[in-house]
Design goal:
By secondary structure, the chain is of the alpha/beta class. The chain has 14 helices and 17 strands. It has 2 domains: about 160 residues, Phosphoglycerate kinase, N-terminal domain (Rossmann fold, 3-Layer(aba) Sandwich), CATH 3.40.50.1260; about 210 residues, Phosphoglycerate kinase, N-terminal domain (Rossmann fold, 3-Layer(aba) Sandwich). Helix content is about 35%, strand content about 20%. Strands 5-6-4-1-7-8 form a 6-stranded parallel beta sheet. The chain has a 6-stranded parallel beta sheet with strand order 11-10-9-15-16-17, sandwiched between helices. The protein starts with 13 loop residues before the first strand and ends with a helix.
């Protein structure tokens, strides 16, 4: 994989830059600019190199139809404000743009082609559509790691027609994840949560063979608590998962990876109720687990202190209610403390975990924070991502 940072001559070159600008929108307003902020270094680098930039991106799932609410117009304005440079949204039908010479009409402006998913050929991974897109540029740059698990035309096919490079952010993402799954500094610990264990079983199984500790928190921990003979009341849990839990326990013993799950919890009768600390063996049928308890927090922070590398994916509880955010906050604080002292390398991923860190203004206090979602998890599973394979 070649990085654009190492390319010597970008002056006046037309760069087709695939970004993931799929930011949350409410009534045409951006509610979270994290994904935009992360790609600014690449844009500023290309501007400095006097390259001509044509951005390809998407918002939402219009399924090959023009959906006015999913226009890139608000993103175009946000980029213009952040870069201090004119950014022009091209609304013409891409199929009617006949050559890269159309750029000559726009001098120093950065161009964004309207939502690439307005064209059904994008998600169909259409080769001819990719060839048409590639005719608009001299060089292709993938700066959308979070889309790289998709075999779509602008991700997977364009590299067949143009010299292709990775962007600065994609390089950071891949390098950070490689420190988690291949270039490991031990001891290495994963803290993993989420509501469904079945969606992360392949991640857990792949990591068991590489990690020293896997700490199960969040909704999926309830399956472990129940598996070991405790009631979880009316807590969120996935049904028919005993076989999966047994498989994880068995593999962990074989690979000498410790599986840690909560030994005490914070419960309530409902999501807005008062918090109460309880041993896992004493949960009543009308109670729900909403956070980890003090003994579990102490155990997890001790493991963090004894680790050199940490992967965190999924909060420890229902952090949206401050009554049940304490466990997640203590995990964050302990990782930040060790990061500050250069005792640990930390990678964080997953939408809820990123939201939690946003709330704490702590995104920049970890070595790497991924907003990649599905691509992040598939890379951790050990899968080949079409966008990365295409660059290679």
């Amino acid at each position: 994989m070649r990085s654009i940072i190492n390319e010597k001559n970008l002056n006046n070159k037309k760069i087709l830059l695939r970004l993931d600008l799929n930011v949350p929108l409410e009534r045409g307003k951006i509610t979270d600019t994290t994904r935009i902020d992360k790609i600014l270094p690449t844009l500023n680098f290309l501007i400095k190199e006097n390259a001509k930039i044509i951005i390809l991106s998407h918002v939402g799932r219009p399924k090959g139809k023009i959906v006015k609410e999913l226009s890139l117009e608000p993103i175009c304005k946000e980029l213009q404000n952040k870069l201090g440079k004119k950014v022009k949204l091209i609304t013409e039908n891409i199929k009617e743009i006949k050559s890269k010479n159309f750029l000559n009409n726009y001098n120093d402006e950065i161009l964004i082609l309207e939502n690439i998913r307005f064209y059904s050929e994008e998600e169909q991974n259409d080769n001819k559509f990719a060839e048409l897109l590639s005719s608009l540029g001299d060089i292709y740059v993938n700066e959308a790691f979070s889309c790289s698990h998709r075999a779509h035309a602008s991700i997977n096919e364009i590299p067949k027609f143009l010299p292709s490079f990775s962007g600065l952010q994609l390089d950071l993402e891949v390098n950070a994840l490689n420190k988690i799954i291949s270039d490991i500094t031990r001891p290495i610990t994963c803290i993993i949560g989420g509501s469904k264990i079945s969606t992360k079983i392949n991640v857990i199984k792949n990591l068991i063979t590489k990690f020293d500790n896997i700490i199960i928190v969040g909704g999926m921990a309830n399956n472990f608590i129940e598996y070991f003979g405790n009631s979880v009341g009316k807590s969120i849990k996935e049904r028919n998962c005993d076989k999966i839990v047994k498989e994880i326990i068995s593999l962990s013993k074989k690979e000498k990876c410790k599986i840690i799950y909560p030994e005490d919890v914070v419960i309530s009768k409902d999501l807005n109720g008062s918090p109460q600390k309880k041993e896992c063996s004493k949960i009543l049928s009308d109670e729900m687990i909403l956070d980890i308890g003090p003994k579990t927090i102490k155990k997890i922070t001790k493991i963090i202190d004894n680790s050199k590398t940490i992967l965190w994916n999924g909060p420890a509880g229902y952090f949206e209610n401050p009554n049940f955010a304490y466990g997640s906050i203590q995990i964050a604080k302990k990782i930040i403390e060790n990061n500050k002292a250069n005792k640990i390398f930390s990678v964080v991923g997953g939408g809820d975990t990123v939201s939690l860190l946003n709330n704490l203004n702590a995104l920049n206090k970890f070595n790497f924070v991924s907003t990649a979602g599905g691509a992040f998890l598939e890379y951790l599973e050990g899968k080949n991502l079409p966008g990365i394979t295409a660059l290679n």
